[in-house]
Amino acid sequence: MPIRHLVANTRLTLARLGPHLRFSSTGSRPDSQRLVACAKAESDIGKGKVWLVGAGPGPPDLLTVRAARLLEAAEVVVYDDLISEVAAGLAHPDAELIYVGKRGGMNSTPQQDIDSLLVRLCTEGRQVVRLKGGCCSVFSRVRSELRALKAAGCDVAMVPGISSALAGPLFGGISLTDKELSRHFLVTSCHDPGILDWTAFSGIDTLVLLMAARQLAVVVSKLCNESDRTPDTPVLIIRSAGTRQEAIFEGTLSNIISVTEGELLSPCVVVVGKVAGDRT
After folding, report:
1. For residues 258 and 252, what is the distance between their CA atoms, to the nearest angstrom?
2. What is the tens place of the pLDDT at every residue in 56-96?
3. Whether the Cβ atoms of residue 141 and residue 189 lie closer than 8 Å to each other
4. Residue 87 to residue 230: CA distance in whole angstroms
5. What is the DSSP letter of 189?
């Protein structure tokens, strides 16, 4: 994936956001050199630091202000799949950009190699942003990276982002909670549906399923046969939420497979429950 290949409207979005992304509490607009100096000041002199940063669901204007500032300051950006435009658009021109994305069914960088890379960069004294899709706290393997960095004595901090589990349903036109339709919701990964206890999902008003595209038929079967869902339970699938590739598929457990037949669904958020049928 060519990291410097950006579409015109992404650059336009970043240009429009520029003044806001660089706003500081003192009213000044520090340049990247000053930001790097401030970043280094947070660590011991001569030591590197790694920020584990959530990039949000994809669109650059859904990045947090803090994340944008750190990207401008970073000497190295280690980034995931689906967020190359964010990394290239906001990183300093001199920053080193390293792609370590993971996609189901495709060649991916082993997690152990990513852990080792972050440790090496930090011990070299580099200021590193590890840019992760969504939020660092939600299915991002952040524990592995955090443990490796801590074990090596590296200085590390985490910056939250907007998880697709929360953003996707909003782009799909639904609310995850409602006093009548959805008093609670559960978020889970369906990368390996065979290891999940589907009976435990019974009684949960709304399910938010991530990484379910390749296993959708299995997921539907599990929900109908091992949970308390009936075939007429509403299902909403939001693909590539908030991006130009966004697509929304509506159905029920009984027909969602036929509704999405032949469609490329990944990456997507699958919402199951009454709120999925209450789209505005």
Report:
1. 10
2. 988 888 999 999 999 999 999 999 887 767 777 889 999 99
3. no
4. 43
5. E
Asked whether the beta carbons of 1 and 80 are under 8 A apart, the reply is: no
**Helical packing angle, 65-73 and 32-42, nearest 10°:** 100
Q: Angle CA(86)–CA(157)–CA(33) in degrees, nearest 5?
A: 60
Long-range contacts of 221-226 (CB under 8 A, 24+ apart): 222/193, 222/196, 222/198, 223/198, 223/253, 223/272, 224/253, 226/198, 226/199
Q: What is the pLDDT of residues 24-60, one digit of tens each?
A: 333 334 444 555 555 555 545 568 999 999 999 888 8
Query: What predicted TM-score, i.e. pTM, was given to this entire model?
Result: 0.82
Closest CA to 234 of 194, 178, 154, 193: 178
Strand ranges across the sheet with 96-99: 96-99, 76-79, 127-132, 49-54, 155-159
